[in-house]
Structure formats: structure tokens, C-alpha cells
């Protein structure tokens, strides 16, 4: 994939994250729903194992919930893109070097 396509893909992903994330379902995810239905959700409240940077997919410190959700989507998209870009730099070999082995 060339750099131009990569940048266009990132821009499309950022636009989707920014404009569609406020319309995500407010319903709990599957595990949380099961915990609610079975009556043990209260056992986990206040006992987080890992401090979440953006709990419940909302960027903290912003009064507008729609804007906070959009920012969380943008930050999450950039973090995932950056992580996958770094992984690709480490594990994906350019096609020009495909025939050359490690020595």
C-alpha cells in the first residue's frame, strides 16, 4: 500500500470515528449485559483492575457528551492506527526485499 492510500484510509477512518461515534448504541456491551441480567454487576463497580483513559468511550473533562464521544473515537482511531503502523514496520518486509533472506 502506498503512502497516499494509507493517508486517505486514515482520513476516512477519522471521519467515521468523529461523525458516527456519537450515534453508537448506549446499550451495555455483551458482558456488561450478562452481568446485569444475572445480577452481579454491582460486584465489579468501583473495583477496576486497569485505569481506563476514556471510560465508557467518552473523553474525560468535556461537558458535551457528543463532543467527548467524538474525541474518544478520534483518539482511539489514532492509537490503533499508530500501533498497527509500528507493527507493520517491524513485521512487514517491503516487496523489493522479498527474495533476500536474513543473513
TrEMBL record:
Signal peptide: 1-24
Domain PDGLE: 3-91
Keyword Transmembrane attached: yes
InterPro entries: PDGLE_dom
Taxonomy, superkingdom: Bacteria
Transmembrane segments annotated in the record for this chain: 67-92
Pfam families, sorted: PDGLE (PF13190)
Keywords, comma-separated and alphabetical: Cell membrane, Membrane, Signal, Transmembrane, Transmembrane helix
Localization of this protein: Cell membrane
Name of the protein in its database record: Cobalt/nickel transport protein
